[in-house]
Design brief:
The protein is α/β, with parallel strands linked by helices. It is 35% helix and 24% strand. The chain has helices at 19-27, 70-81, 102-114, 130-141, 160-170, 188-203, 242-249, 254-271, 291-296; strands spanning 5-13, 45-50, 54-60, 88-94, 117-123, 148-151, 213-223, 229-239, 274-283. The longest helix has 18 residues, at 254-271.
Length: 301
C-alpha cells in the first residue's frame, strides 16, 4: 500500500473562470457558491477531498479583478495571501483566451515571486477547436515552468480524478488534517450566509448582487410541537441603495420570498433537518468599508 499523502492547494484565476464549479466537483459536494457572474467568491474557503491514499485541502479564492473598493482590495489580498501557505497552486484560465492578458500576466508575476508547484488548468475547452487549444498550451508553456497542464470542462465531473491524481503526485507524505467525514471548514452559519447570497446572485439584476452582504443574526436549533428538529435562521441582506432594496424585496415581497425558498431548500439538505428561514433587507451604503465586515473576508491560515 502506498504512503498516505496530504497537503494544501490554492485555486487562483481571474473572475468567472470556473474555479468554484471545479472545486465543487473535486469535493463532490456543493461547498462553494456558484453563479454566472464575476466576483461570486469573496471568502478563502477550505474544502476537503478525502481519497484512499490522500487528503487534499483546497482553498478557493476570490477571482482576481481590478479593485474598486476596500472590499475588492481585501478580496485580492486574500487570494494572493493564500498562495504562500500551500503546497500546490492550481492556476485556472479560459480556453477562449487568445493571448496572455493583463490579468493573467499579473497572476503569473505573483506566481514567479512565490515559486511554488503550479498546475495550469485550462477550462472551457468545449468552446474551442483542438488546434486553438494546442496554440494556447504552447503560449503558456513559455510563461512558466508548470508542473503539468490540464485542459478541462469544469462542469464535467469526468475531469475531477485527472486533476486530483496530478495534485496527489506533487504532494509529500503527511497526516490527515481533518476527519475523513468532513468536506469543509465552514460553519453552518457561514454556509447559510453564502447560500442566501448565492440565490440572490442568481435571481437579481446584474447591478444589485455585488452590492449586497448577508449576515445571519440568529441560528438556533429547537424541537417543534411535533418533536421534530428544526433550525431557526434569521438573516439580513444589506444593500447599498434604496432602489436596490426595492428590487431585492420585489413586488409584494415576491423576490425576497423566492430567495428565501431557494435558500431554505439547500439549507435543509446541508443541515439535515427542516429550516425556518426569515429574511430582512436593510440599506447601508458603506457596508463594504466596514472594518468589522472586511475582517470576515481576510485570509487566515
Amino acid at each position: 500500500m502506498s504512503e498516505f499523502k496530504s497537503g494544501f492547494v490554492s485555486i487562483i484565476g481571474r473572475t468567472n473562470v470556473g474555479k468554484s464549479t471545479l472545486l465543487n466537483n473535486l469535493i463532490k459536494e456543493d461547498v462553494v457558491i456558484t453563479a454566472n457572474k464575476p466576483q461570486t467568491t469573496r471568502l478563502a474557503i477550505r474544502a476537503i477531498a478525502n481519497r484512499e491514499n490522500s487528503q487534499i485541502i483546497f482553498i478557493d479564492t476570490p477571482g482576481i479583478h481590478k479593485p474598486k473598493s476596500k472590499l475588492s482590495e481585501t478580496m485580492i489580498d486574500t487570494a494572493f495571501s493564500s498562495l504562500k501557505d500551500v503546497d500546490v497552486i492550481l492556476f485556472m484560465i479560459e480556453a477562449t483566451s487568445k493571448d496572455v492578458g493583463k490579468g493573467d500576466t499579473y497572476i503569473l508575476e505573483k506566481l514567479k515571486e512565490i515559486n511554488k508547484k503550479v498546475i495550469l488548468i485550462i477550462n472551457k475547452i468545449d468552446l474551442i477547436e483542438k488546434e486553438k487549444l494546442l496554440e494556447l498550451i504552447t503560449l503558456y508553456k513559455d510563461t512558466y515552468n508548470f508542473a503539468s497542464i490540464i485542459p478541462i470542462e469544469a462542469s464535467n465531473k469526468k475531469y475531477s480524478d485527472i486533476v486530483l491524481d496530478e495534485i496527489e503526485k506533487l504532494l509529500k507524505p503527511g497526516p490527515m488534517f481533518y476527519d475523513p467525514e468532513e468536506y469543509t471548514d465552514q460553519t453552518l452559519r457561514q454556509m447559510a450566509e453564502e447560500k442566501i447570497r448565492e440565490k440572490a446572485l442568481r435571481l437579481l439584476n446584474d447591478e444589485v448582487p455585488h452590492g449586497i452582504y448577508v449576515e445571519v443574526t440568529k441560528f438556533k436549533d429547537r424541537k417543534t410541537t411535533k418533536k421534530e428538529d428544526i433550525y431557526d435562521i434569521d438573516a439580513t441582506i444589506y444593500c447599498k441603495r434604496d432602489s436596490h432594496k426595492g428590487i431585492i424585496i420585489g413586488k409584494d415581497g415576491q423576490m425576497l420570498k423566492k430567495i428565501g425558498q431557494y435558500a431554505r431548500h439547500d439549507l435543509e439538505k446541508i443541515c439535515g433537518m427542516k429550516v425556518n428561514l426569515k429574511l430582512w433587507v436593510k440599506v447601508d451604503n458603506k457596508w463594504d468599508e466596514n472594518t468589522q465586515i472586511l475582517k470576515k473576508f481576510k485570509y487566515t491560515n
